Amino acid sequence: MFDITSIARPNILTLEPYRCARDDFQEGILLDANENTYGPSFTEFSVREKELELNRYPDPHQIPLKKRLCGFRNSEACNPQSIIKPEIGRDVKAELLTPANVCLSVGSDGGIDLLIRCFCKPGVEKVLVCPPTYPMYDTCCAVNDVEMMVEPLDLNTFQIKPDRIISRLKDDPSIKLVFITSPGNPTATMIKHDLIFQVIDAVEKMSWNGLIVVDEAYIDFCPIGSSMSVLVNKHKNLVVLQTFSKSFALAGIRLGVTYSTAEVSMLLNTTRDPYCLNKGASHAAMKATSKKALDLMKATCQKINEQRSLVSKAFSKIPGIGKNIGGEDANFILVQVLNKDGVPDNKMAYQLYWKLATERKVVVRYRGEELACTGCLRVTIGTPEENVKLLEDLESVLREGF
Ligand SMILES: Cc1ncc(COP(=O)(O)O)c(C=O)c1O
Fold first, then answer.
1. Which of 4, 27, 50, 196 reaches 20 to 30 Å from 325, CA-CA?
2. In a 3-state reduction of DSSP, which class is residue 247?
3. How far apart are CA 26 and CA 13, in angstroms?
4. Taking CB atoms and a 6 Å cutoff, what residues make up the pocket around ligand 1?
């Protein structure tokens, strides 16, 4: 069931969408927004800095960028090889994404925070997450005084358990958001679409009123048409989060994208800081979403995937390194570090992490404390040269012992 009035917080429902004089007039002598028309006091300007008119507020709506993002996701979904294609409705045009389905935020971390602020009453309503998962859900819940419930993944497959999630929602209507990370972090495992559909289909028939948020930060490392973003008009309880930080290689601009129904999207856009997307970020994102740049992005993801296979294979031959316990659906792998008895070991993993960073200047991430990740390091796939150095250093540090 989807009823926005019982999903959103009442104070959010009554917010008026942000409007400014610039929505109606963009040209002329602009004295409407208390900007400094003298311009910044830089002693020198690059051509680009001049063009950006940094003394002016950025466009709060970003329709050209939203159009590009929708065009990209729609075209991927309609590709003959697309995995999601059979799920798109018959009236393709009515179902696919438009800018009304998009909210841009300061990273997808900003999107996570926005969703919690819009849909969970502090101290009353809750969020459900499926560990091992991305720790920022926990932080955002804590900041917003929203209780976080957990329903672990199947710890052998790192897939969700739909029956368990559905029963948690039946038992506790105060859960308003479910975060499903696909591909997962630190699991690098894409959640099977049919498992997510089991949850969505059940929710559509239940009296539970909330949103199933699929966090697709790493989706471009998966086969074409893996994103569920194109289904938000068909399945109203579905929300999809994406980011420019991974496949687009633009972590520095802090840009996240939330796809949801026009109703949900309107609330998110009304709640967020209207000028949260700065001109530098908008400029870089427009460059990154031209047809040529998108083709290059996909080709780079493919290269990273090839490197990931090589690194994973090489890891399996290094004495002291155990299994890659995660999947192969993201730009990182999750590997075990073993003790002398061949058992995954947190102390060994932490020491290896520390030695690599301090003695070899190679920094990976220790993840041993995460559920079912004992002894694990999460290793991001780098360039071929970086990967060779990582493997050499890892092997020699392990050989030297510690
Ligand atoms: C699963 C997941 N979601 C969201 C994010 C946050 O991305 P952003 O850089 O857009 O805030 C990350 C970052 O590592 C992530 O792993």
1. 196
2. coil
3. 29
4. 107-109, 134, 181, 185, 215, 217, 243, 245, 251, 256
